[in-house]
Amino acid sequence: MPDSRKRSSSSVERAFEFLDLVAEAKPHGVTLTDLARASALPVSTCHRYVSTLVDLGALSKDSAGRLFLGAKLLTLTQAALEGNTLRTQARPYLEQLAAVSGETVHLGAHTDHGIVYIDKIDSEQAVRLVSRIGSVVPHYCTAMGKAVLAVLSPEERAPFLAKATAHTSYTLTGSNLDAEIQAIAERRWAIDEQENEEGVRCIGAAIVSPTGELLGAVSVSGPAGRFTRQLCADLAPLVLAAADNAGQQTWPHPT
User: Fold this and answer.
1) Confidence of residue 251 (pLDDT cuts 50, 70, 90)
2) DSSP state of 207
């Protein structure tokens, strides 16, 4: 007898693959043919998946037949954010960092795919950073990501380090990145020295529970010309305090 559990799991994975493909195509959407080409599946198979996702509201289709993410995902996303304990408990400390630094503050969650922004407070200064909640950034070239890697064991961080490629001329890779992670592990805060985006500097720290559970990370970012490395270093104690306070408040998990 076929293993129905495996079949169901594969179907869910395929559905999420389609959602990812549509998300990557923003803002112009994709056609059924695009999905078939990208997934290497017959158009008829893609049509069955897409029809179900449209019926569920996870995808929407315009008059030309192009596919976009559906309104149901907005509802689920909002519910996920509102129910996120870390986001709720960390918010006061994000606000404090934003007020003191005058720069953009992010809260991130650690995932296998990267660091996902789950909260953000924009700078009130004229020149601001462009980012959005839900964006995913790499571990190895961001302040939050490197701070998280420094908390992980060598075995846990290895897959993330293996993905390291140069995003900018400043991105660290190989032995230079290894040395940087070791230094971060000792001081507990990390600087993104324009490694993910040229012209942007960032300082971040991992959020860890009192029992050592990795909960996420917090960062402060600004234009490199204004947010100097010295300002980052001066802000380090406050970033660490915000991360520590958020970790204390979020633990233990509510039952």
Assistant:
1) low
2) E
Better-predicted residue by pLDDT, 85 or 176:
176
Token couple for 51: 């029809």
**Both structure tokens of 201:** 């500097």
- Among the residue ranges 10-19, 131-140, 240-249, the one predicted with the least confidence is 10-19
Is the separation of the CB atoms in 137 and 115 below 8 Å? yes
Angle at 135 between CA 209 and CA 193, to 5 degrees: 75
The mean pLDDT of 183-209, rounded to a whole number, is 96
Residue 64 and residue 85: Cα distance in Å, rounded? 41
> Strand, helix or coil at 94?
helix
pLDDT digits (tens, 9 = 90+) for 229-244: 999 999 999 999 999 9
What whole-number distance in Å separates Cα of residue 147 and Cα of residue 9? 33
Backbone angles phi, psi at 146, to 5 degrees: -70, -35
Q: What is the dihedral of CA 250, 191, 232, 148, to 10 degrees?
A: 10
CB atoms within 10 A of CB 177: 18
Which spans in 83-228 are helix H?
85-101, 143-151, 154-161, 174-187
Please calculate the CA angle 126-123-136 and round it to the nearest 5 degrees. Answer: 120
CA–CA dist 115, 71 (Å, integer): 24
Mean pLDDT value across the chain: 88
In this structure, which amino acid lies at residue 177?
L
Strand partners, 30: 67
Task: Name the pTM for this structure.
Answer: 0.75
Q: What tokens were used for 119? A: 């909260």
- Residue 191, C-beta contacts closer than 8 angstroms, at least 6 positions apart: 143, 201, 202, 203, 229, 232, 233
User: What value does the CA radius of gyration of the chain take, rounded to a whole number of Å?
Assistant: 20
